[in-house]
Specification:
The protein is an alpha+beta fold. It has 2 domains: 11-115, Gcn5-related N-acetyltransferase (GNAT) (Aminopeptidase, 3-Layer(aba) Sandwich); 125-272, Gcn5-related N-acetyltransferase (GNAT) (Aminopeptidase), CATH 3.40.630. Helices cover 29% and strands 31% of the residues. The structure holds coenzyme A. Residues 161-162, 211-213, 218-224, 246, 250-253, 255-256, 259 line the site of coenzyme A.
Length: 279
């Protein structure tokens, strides 16, 4: 359990107060980074002015409706700080709150003991073998690079294909798609958007970020072809090590990746959180 504070006062952490926060050496934030973060998200962090303890909140995967506990100090005020942050997310209409990977790694059991739960679990896959595939493109399929004008169509496809926790935030996706090391491709048949695939790469390593086919068009080979297309492109650009994650319960995706030679690494990422309702 969180240690119960005797009498602790917590208040909103303003960006001008960032230098006074007691960040440990292994914090993901420097005071300057924290200041920048607080400027962007001014309502989502709290602290104990006396001790310098803190709970830094943000948005999970850029989502407007899913908050994140990014980092907390592990002292006497932790319980109250986290509770205050969760209350703020609830007041602001967030649908859920989850722990950042760092926070989950540091204090998962504490949160679970306080009623937080596993919302999902991701399995990590990796491919380091050669890619012998070169599938014939389904004749009705046309492929093009993503353009910002495609955002509305892609968002609706995304919402059909993925459980709500994994929906992309449209503006976050736009920022992601414009990154230099990211490639996004759309597949259409008869002018209708049926699927998309996206990946990012750095230093000869790649990550398959998204693969989705509209449920009504699933099972027709589009997903296999999009996967083959994306991996071939990565391979052609010199990438020899490709990672991806997929949900533990997503057997269709696991079967697909395994059939193409992706191997489970045994590494998993738990998504620890809670769904929020207005009280
Ligand atoms: C996973 C996904 C991309 C597969 O796309 P798809 O167009 O249906 O794939 P294909 O038609 O090429 O089928 C490839 C294989 O996927 C598996 N598969 C597809 N649909 C399946 C289903 N409903 N149940 C079980 N396996 C399924 C099968 O192994 C299939 O092999 P088969 O052709 O021998 O039957 C698609 O179902 C999807 O978008 N799912 C939701 C989003 C998602 O989970 N993305 C990937 C996780 S990050």
């Amino acid at each position: 359990m969180f240690r119960q504070p005797k009498q602790v006062m917590v208040s909103l952490l303003a960006y001008g107060e960032a230098p006074r926060v007691r960040l440990p050496w292994d914090s993901r934030f420097t005071p300057a980074m924290l200041r920048g973060h607080l400027e962007l998200h001014p309502r989502l962090s709290f602290w104990n002015q006396t001790t310098g303890e803190y709970a830094i909140g943000g948005r999970w995967r850029g989502r407007r409706d899913v908050g994140a506990v990014l980092e907390t100090s592990k002292g006497n005020s932790q319980s109250l700080l986290v509770e205050t942050l969760v209350t703020r997310f609830r007041e602001d209409g967030f649908r859920a709150v989850v722990l950042s990977q760092d926070e989950a790694d540091a204090a998962c059991s504490l949160y679970l003991a306080c009623g937080w739960r596993k919302l999902d679990r991701l399995l990590v896959y990796r491919l380091t073998d050669a890619w012998p595939y070169d599938r014939q493109k389904p004749t009705d399929l046309a492929v093009s690079s993503f353009h910002p004008g495609d955002l509305a169509g892609l968002t609706s496809l995304d919402r059909e294909a993925f459980p709500w926790l994994w929906w992309n935030d449209p503006s976050d996706f736009l920022a992601y798609s414009s990154s230099e090391n990211v490639a996004v491709f759309l597949a259409r048949a008869g002018g209708r958007l049926l699927g998309y695939v996206s990946y990012s790469s750095r230093n000869n390593r790649g990550h398959l970020d998204r693969l989705a086919v509209r449920p009504a068009s699933a099972g027709k080979g589009y997903g296999s072809w999009l996967l083959d297309f994306a991996v071939r492109r990565m391979w052609q650009s010199g990438i020899r090590d490709i990672g991806l994650t997929t949900q533990e319960t997503n057997l269709a995706a696991q079967e697909l990746y395994q059939r193409f030679g992706f191997v489970k690494t045994g590494e998993t990422h738990e998504v620890i959180g809670q769904e929020l309702s207005k009280t």
